[in-house]
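User: quick one, fold this
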Amino acid sequence: MNRLTKIIYCLVGLILVGYALASGYLLFFGGLPAQINATVALYVLLYGAGVSAGIGLLFILRGIFSRRSYPLMALEQEGGSVTISRTALKNIVYTAVDGFPGVQESRTKIRLSGGKRRAPDCRVRVRIGIAPDSNLPVQHEAMRSRISDAICATTGVTPRRIDLAFYTPPIKHVDPQEGEGSK
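Assistant:
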């Protein structure tokens, strides 16, 4: 959660808690219109104040105590540190996979772990759309080694695990009469 989001959560929480306090003040120190039964007004104001205060406190606590997510791989070295984003790692994998003939599309998921106390670690899962007559599943070891080499050469970290899943993407039939997109 970034800093602006945390500030917005805290402001919303403060507004809701302020509303709850104002409702309580009106309940105990203010007057009621003659048309409203005192018991009904008491229950409605207590319920509204309680719900507002509860939600407001949840917003404040979430804004204060939420951890900031770091989808980065941090490499500590003698001259300083280098951080690599998940998107950069995905682009490295895309480049490595697209080098094989027969790849029509690929989808990559990267799981990063490690931190300042542990060595950085990444796990890669790639779904590869291949042509129906492709022999790419036979070349899975060559694909794994190319992905591993590309990540290692770029980041200096060898991936712990590389999972490959092959599938045949749906074929779009183009009808000359109707144009593209018909099935």
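User: anything notable?
Assistant: The mean pLDDT is 76.
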